[in-house]
Write a structure and sequence with these properties.
Layout lengths: L26 E4 L2 E4 H5 L3 E6 L6 H15 L8 E7 L3 H18 L9 E3 L4 H5 L22 E6 L5 E7 L7 H17 L1 E2 L10 E3 L5 H7 L4 E4 L2 E4 L4
Parallel strand pairs: 3-4, 4-5
Antiparallel strand pairs: 1-2, 3-6, 6-7, 8-9, 9-11, 10-11
Helix pairs in contact: 2-3
Bound molecules: benzoic acid (BEZ).
Benzoic acid (BEZ) binds next to α2.
Organism: Collybiopsis luxurians FD-317 M1
GO cellular component, one term: cytosol
GO molecular function, one term: peroxiredoxin activity
Amino acid sequence: MSAPATAPPPDPNRPPLRLGSTVPDFEAETTLGHIKFHEFLGNSWGILFSHPGDFTPVCTTELGEVARRAKAGDWEKRNVKVIGISANSLDDHYKWVKDINEYGTKSVSETDVQYPIIADGDRRISYLFDMLDYQDATNIDPKSGLPFTIRTVYIIDPAKKVRLKLDYPAVAGRNFDEIIRVLDAIQLGDKHRIATPVNWKPGEDVIVHASVQGEEAKRLFPEHVVHYPYLRTTPLKV
Ligand code: BEZ
């Protein structure tokens, strides 16, 4: 890994990114060229995900998985653009992508990373999105003493609002089944005034949203069952 440039100090006046915040716009160099983030997202959903560093084992498996999901059409059918980020140079990214493709292809199935990876050597964007590790003392770049990025996932909607933020420590690889499951739940909730119960999977019964009451509940969800006034479940035909 190449040594990162000096990190800019985090701006103490910047409000934290919360669910519903508009994601910051930024320009960056990526493995697919220069981007303006909002322009890159366009009218799509977005998944921005960081990882601790290039040439690290867990990350190698994660980025391969995101590429295989792309090949399977999992992002396109949900109108999602995915983009990775880590505090490494573009040169490192290009070299590492070869390893990701080679390892993924031999250990799982054909792997070909086609989505962009941001080169955030100075951590400018990682700071903006609160993707740095202040807790795990082992997750520090030995050359600079700066914290590496952690495994953060943002799901961003077409209005550029944060809809989900997950932070994982460096030692635990993410579960992209879960990330897609929650994306499905969010997209379904946007369309149908429902919520999804614990461990929900597509096709299973959902929960009628509290804002839907009386005659409207009967009309929208004729098969719904009232377990308690506050807990009503229904099958959903999509
Ligand atoms: C990994 O991706 O394997 C990793 C990266 C940083 C710290 C620990 C593990």
